[in-house]
Amino acid sequence: MMEWLLAPLAYLTGSVSSAIIVCKIMGLADPRENGSGNPGATNVMRIGGKKAAAITLFGDAMKGLLPVLLAKALGADSLLLSLVIFAAFLGHLYPLFFAFKGGKGVATSFGVTLGVDWLLGATVLATWLAVYKIGKISSLAALVAALLTPLYVWLIVGDVDILITFILISAILLWRHKGNIQRLLARQET
Questions:
Q1: Cα 72 from Cα 80, distance rounded (Å)
Q2: In the chain, where the domains are located
């Protein structure tokens, strides 16, 4: 029965904002009030450079990866694992500790894919890297990776509960990037 505490724990883990913590520790401006206003790695790079962004990216990915690995280690079935995946992702988007104002979820969603299956995570990362190498636009790479993730889940994992979870995550990622999509269509995205 204790395993059902995994989803709330995953949400709390996801609620820890790597961007805000990294910026505070490194003496940088609050990412919620500077740059794009998004507490994520891309905005942290604008504010504080590559090192701060890399630490933020790592932290955001870990808060997706660790709860999923813990749930798997404790033998969670696919429904519980799906809840843990979604809870960690949702925690990043709507963090309890930061007035429910979080990032867009790209790095955390990568972390949960890596936790589900290393090949799934590697495939999503390879997609992001390939699109970024061609287009040099982080949001475009994130959007393409998000669109393809459910297909990868179906082909690599083949579990319906997890597939439905990633369809939902991908839809939310697209919605959270609606401003980026508008700028991409207008050819104004940097």
A1: 10
A2: 2-185
Q: Residue 190 and residue 187: Cα distance in Å, rounded?
A: 9
Residue 97: how many other CB atoms lie within 10 Å? 13
Residues 43-63: tens digit of each pLDDT = 999 999 999 999 999 999 999
Short-list 184, 147, 152, CA closest to 169: 147
Q: 36 falls in which pLDDT band (50, 70, 90)?
A: confident
Q: Which of 122, 120, 114 is nearest to 158 (CA)?
A: 120
For 118-159, write each residue's pLDDT tens digit: 999 999 999 999 999 999 988 899 999 999 999 999 999 999
Phi, psi of 160 (to 5 degrees): -65, -40
Positions of E strands within the chain:
none
For residue 1, the model assigns a pLDDT of: 54
Closest CA to 38 of 102, 105, 106: 102
